[in-house]
Specification:
142 residues, seven-stranded mixed β-sheet, 38% strand, Nucleoside Triphosphate Pyrophosphohydrolase, alpha+beta, 7 strands, disordered N terminus
């Protein structure tokens, strides 16, 4: 744990790495227009995997299997508050996601995701996952 982690009270946020035919699901924020991995903030006492399943249901109208934790990235909210973004491999249970709380959804080729206008913490996380080879369906058996 870094000194920064000890000193700051982080907002714990989850996000889903959902792959389909080599494409990654991204959601466009309603206010800023920036793209992000779908997910959201953990409520007090809620586990990260429970949080992510709930957020996907609320934001995309889908149920999902939440798999393994892929990476955690520290960053800042648009307001400058510290956040910790936890990315999990996820698989949708047959439904097509709907943008209930976002402007749009996109299935983006992995090689092109970093060319999009991404939220800064999501960008840093995706760069790490891409360089580690974690944006590959076969890595997770899906």
């Amino acid at each position: 744990m870094t000194n920064l982690s000890k000193e700051l009270d982080f907002l714990e946020v989850t996000c889903a790495v959902i792959l389909r035919e080599g494409k990654l699901l991204l959601a466009q924020r309603a206010k800023s227009g920036l793209w992000e991995l779908p997910g959201g903030k953990a409520e007090p006492g809620e586990t990260l995997s429970t949080c992510l399943a709930r957020e996907l249901e609320e934001e995309l109208a889908v149920s999902a299997q939440v798999g393994s934790l892929l990476a955690t990235q520290e960053g800042l909210t648009p307001e400058g508050k510290p956040l910790r973004l936890h990315a999990f491999a996820c698989r949708l249970n047959g439904q097509n996601p709907q943008p209930l709380e976002h402007r749009a959804l996109a299935w983006q080729e992995i090689g092109l995701t970093l060319g999009m206008e991404l939220c800064p913490t999501d960008r840093a996380l995706l760069e790490r996952l891409k360089s580690a080879g974690d944006l590959d369906n076969s890595t997770h058996g899906w």
